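Good morning,

Attaching, inline, the backbone tokens for the sequence recovery test we're adding to the shared suite. The designed sequence is right after.
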């Protein structure tokens, strides 16, 4: 993994605990998601505000992370993903929430696709520090 450069802002504002991508990152962390990163994509991609990227040790953990993200986002505001892809083999699950995407990988697939390197210019959102802001 490449070292991340965390930035505290999304657009012109500080991230908050109520930002859904922060909720998703914390849900992944609660299920032992590895190296969870949040990338601010709005200025680079224009189609979505953020990517949440995390990985599990195996497909069972990947499914557990996906379930937890979905549960916590529903609890936080009743939000469900527009679509979920990749659950059949659970090596790379993509949860599309419209304004942000959650990528949950098994570690080998994450290293192969290396989204953090592909989007190296995307600012990293410090999701663990959002509560302190």
């Amino acid at each position: 993994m490449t070292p991340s450069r965390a930035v505290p802002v999304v657009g012109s504002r500080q991230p908050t605990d109520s930002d859904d991508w922060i909720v998703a990152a914390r849900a992944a962390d609660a299920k032992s998601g590895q190296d969870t990163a949040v990338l601010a994509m709005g200025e680079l991609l224009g189609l979505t505000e953020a990517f949440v990227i995390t990985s599990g040790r195996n497909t069972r953990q990947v499914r557990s992370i996906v379930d937890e993200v979905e549960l916590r986002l529903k609890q936080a505001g009743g939000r469900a993903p527009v679509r979920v892809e990749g659950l059949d083999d659970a090596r790379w699950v993509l949860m599309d929430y419209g304004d942000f995407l959650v990528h949950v990988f098994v570690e080998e697939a994450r290293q192969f696709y290396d989204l953090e390197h592909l989007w190296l210019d995307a600012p990293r959102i410090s999701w663990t520090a959002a509560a302190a802001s």
